[in-house]
Amino acid sequence: MSQAAFSPAADRNKQAILEVLQQLLPAHGRALEIASGTGQHVAWFAKHLPRWTWQPTDADAPTLNSIDARIAQEQLANVLAPLLLDVLSPVWLPEDTPAFDAIYCANMLHIAPWSTCAALMQGAERHLAKGAKLITYGPYLEESVATSAGNLGFDEALRSENPAWGLRQLEAVQTEAQKAGLQLAQRFSLPANNLLLVWTPLLQTADAAA
Length: 210
Ligand SMILES: C[S@@+](CC[C@H](N)C(=O)[O-])C[C@H]1O[C@@H](n2cnc3c(N)ncnc32)[C@H](O)[C@@H]1O
Hints:
This protein has helices at residues 8-24, 40-48, 61-74, 115-127, 149-161, 170-179, 203-209, and strands at residues 29-34, 52-58, 83-84, 100-106, 128-138, 140-141, 168-169, 182-190, 194-201. The protein is α/β, with parallel strands linked by helices. The protein has one domain: Vaccinia Virus protein VP39 (Rossmann fold), CATH 3.40.50.150. The radius of gyration is 16 Å and the shape is globular. Residues 7, 10, 34-37, 41, 58-60, 63, 86-88, 106-108, 111-112, 116 line the site of S-adenosylmethionine.
């Protein structure tokens, strides 16, 4: 079996993210992770939210071997075998897959083409259960918040590596979310100028008002 890959950044930010998830999520449920990468986040969350079942996924096939290795190494019974899932694919999962109580996606939008933003929002809208949340995490640019020197440098480095990459403007992400029927419901500032954002179906506002 392959070795589990390791990301120092994922190791640094997993606890701060978990602390917000612990506030946001009910005691049990089923979560879909998009762009799982090394699997460090899903492993940490599965360990500390043991009544949740986690479905890791990634668009990169070799990455799935690393996630598999991590699940085996950490003996996590509540993490399902990772699935190949490219958000740009019009079909994410088999039609009979039950809706998820949470969908989580960290650090993908800036390291993938802009089209993945609309695709993420539309796919999440298709696969979220009623009352469920899409949670995204990563660095963003915001009109009303001065961009940190660190994020400016990171944005430049990303764009020079691949012109299709780069930090995303939160207002533009909100526009794509709205087109897909989602709205920004909560915003948490996390260390190192990252944001954890909670997106919920637009319908819930109408439901609440009814
Ligand atoms: C920087 S890593 C983030 C990994 C992990 N979520 C974390 O925060 O440590 C970005 C991940 O996005 C995945 N990715 C890129 N394009 C994607 C797409 N179109 N659909 C799904 N995943 C994608 C990559 O394969 C990679 O694993």
